[in-house]
# Entry
Amino acid sequence: MEKHNIVKIEFPSLPSNVSFARVAAAAFAAQLDFTLNDLEEIKVAVSEAVTNAIVHGYANNSGGTICLFAEIRKDNLIIVVEDRGRGIENIEKALQPTSSTDPERMGLGFSFMQSFSDTLRVESSPGAGTRVTMTRNCGKKSTPPASH
Amino acid sequence: MEKHNIVKIEFPSLPSNVSFARVAAAAFAAQLDFTLNDLEEIKVAVSEAVTNAIVHGYANNSGGTICLFAEIRKDNLIIVVEDRGRGIENIEKALQPTSSTDPERMGLGFSFMQSFSDTLRVESSPGAGTRVTMTRNCGKKSTPPASH
Amino acid sequence: MELQLEVKGATLLARIRGEIDLAVADSLRSALDKELNGNDEIRHIVVNMGGVNYIDSSGLGVLLGRYRRVSKGGGEMFIVGAPPNVRKIIEMSGLLRIIPEFANEAEALIRAV
Amino acid sequence: MELQLEVKGATLLARIRGEIDLAVADSLRSALDKELNGNDEIRHIVVNMGGVNYIDSSGLGVLLGRYRRVSKGGGEMFIVGAPPNVRKIIEMSGLLRIIPEFANEAEALIRAV
Ligand SMILES: Nc1ncnc2c1ncn2[C@@H]1O[C@H](COP(=O)(O)OP(=O)(O)O)[C@@H](O)[C@H]1O
Ligand SMILES: Nc1ncnc2c1ncn2[C@@H]1O[C@H](COP(=O)(O)OP(=O)(O)O)[C@@H](O)[C@H]1O
# Structure
């Protein structure tokens, strides 16, 4: 298997593209030896980042563009989700669990991204946009597989 | 479901990306009411185009870039696969079934693309690259589902 | 996503299949609320998630919103049959601490009275 | 892709699982050729495709190449158990007209003598 690979995916801020983005990212991540459980987690992390770009970044306006970069470096997966939307005023506050600016949301997006990555970095400037970078090593032991 | 959507995917000419490209394209196409059989055929068509870009366009060199555009317009799927590789001297000849410039290949790539699309367009200039455009309407009756 | 709704006495039984993400959250929310709005007898909700293969925070938000709604009216909400990967997400969100789960519809329906 | 090889008399039995595309075509080709090169007794090939869920022209090329090889030595090649979507691709390529298929390994192995 190749040790370096990077794909760039660009798509409009449509809710139907959340599913497209997570499947595409997982299909790419599958080039590393991730377990099915890992890939399910990666899908959730990517969905949360893309959902935020649509819901918060572009305020549910379908005219925005979202960029997803997925990169494999040795046995590391790097996922970057970028929007050129309204940005985040207070990143520290936004990262706190259950902190949502939307009453119909739980404020768990960043929590899931954090739980399902080794590192999470959020860069944002109000009015300019947001970039979320997640990395995950495929050797790393993940959250134990779901069980009843 | 949205009636217009377009995604752009850029990736290096690595054999492992053939699988990534077909899964991503099928995940996107699934936004239309294609059957599972249709999606399987779309996967093959995309794989053939991407394989050609890698094998012929870039002569198996991993340094090339391939662009895949997938677009939904009403109930039409449009797939464009582009490389900036060596191009095709004689497009008409290349399109003939079992015409391959590679003895280990069957010359069936374009045949499958043709069978699994409503329209196939090939644009190419030697030294500059190749662009393959396939369209498929999701109302259209497809090849009958495979059966024993 | 597919949704099947059935009213059994004071309980709304919602059977959901497929993926619950941003693309379907609004329509799932409206379909449930429409049923709750249209029938004053309904006090409880049982959500059968046996056919759900994906959920993320957009789906959890719908569950939490409906939980809050029935709780206000003194009713209860239960989850049934979530597959392991879906159950894990619900559990991580903390929702399982307020929305009890049951192995099958019958058990949940007996509790919802 | 996973490949399991077994030699039964004059027949190489290859059980393939997974997806056969450009990414695995080279390694599949070399693995089969290595076995053919290393054992002069082998005259026939039976390919069990029961576990194959995807094939495209890169995979068909490998099949055709191995068919040509055993044909030259007077041997035969057979396909076993290709699932419907995989079988359709093989059929469209015309390969089924030269590489007969059988429902199971036993029947193919009886023919390959
Ligand atoms: N891409 C983004 N653009 C603008 N604001 C964002 C973005 N992502 C997150 N935020 C802000 O951070 C907050 C917390 O995000 P998150 O943890 O995902 O919770 P939720 O999406 O449920 O609100 C959001 O409510 C929003 O205010
Ligand atoms: N992207 C491309 N760049 C350069 N040449 C190409 C490209 N696609 C196809 N060709 C040429 O067209 C021929 C026929 O292609 P195809 O029908 O896919 O058969 P095969 O890939 O099996 O050779 C190839 O052998 C090659 O010479």
